[in-house]
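hey can u check if this looks right to u? its 140 residues, i copy pasted from the old doc so theres a chance i mangled smth
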Amino acid sequence: MLNINDIDFSEAFWDCWSGTGSVVADCNCGKTHVAMNSIDLGWYSSPDENDDHATAVAYFEEMAKNNPNMILDYGDFDTFTILELAGRGFVYGCECEGWKPYMNFIINSRYDIKEFLIKIHEEIKRAEEHYRTFEVLKEI
C-alpha cells in the first residue's frame, strides 16, 4: 500500500509558491546564504566598495570568518530562491528546511483544506448573489 509520507513533494511545493531571488539571501533560521560566483555579488558588498567581484568575494569571506551563520556557496547559480510563507522567508536548499512544516501541514490536512475551500467558494457565491440583488434594488 502506498504511504503518502514516503513521497517527496518538495519540488512540487516550491514550484507552486511564488518566490523571489537574491544573491545574498537571509533564511528564517538565521543563516545568510551568499552566491559567491554571481556576477552581481559586487552590489552586495560594503557600501564603501565598488562593484568589483574580487573585492566583494574578499568582503564576504572576511565576514564569514566571524559569522558561523553565513553560508558561502561557490556553486554555478547566480541567486538563491526565497520562499515567502506566513511572513517568513525560507532559502531554497537551506539545511534547516523550515518550510517543510507548512508543506506537511497542507499534505496532512488536505481533506480539511478542501472542505474549507469549498465552503469559502459557497460563501463567495452567496455574497455575489446578495451584491447583485442589492444593486438591482438600489436602482428601483
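The beta strands are 19-22, 24-26, 32-35, 70-73, 80-85, 88-91.
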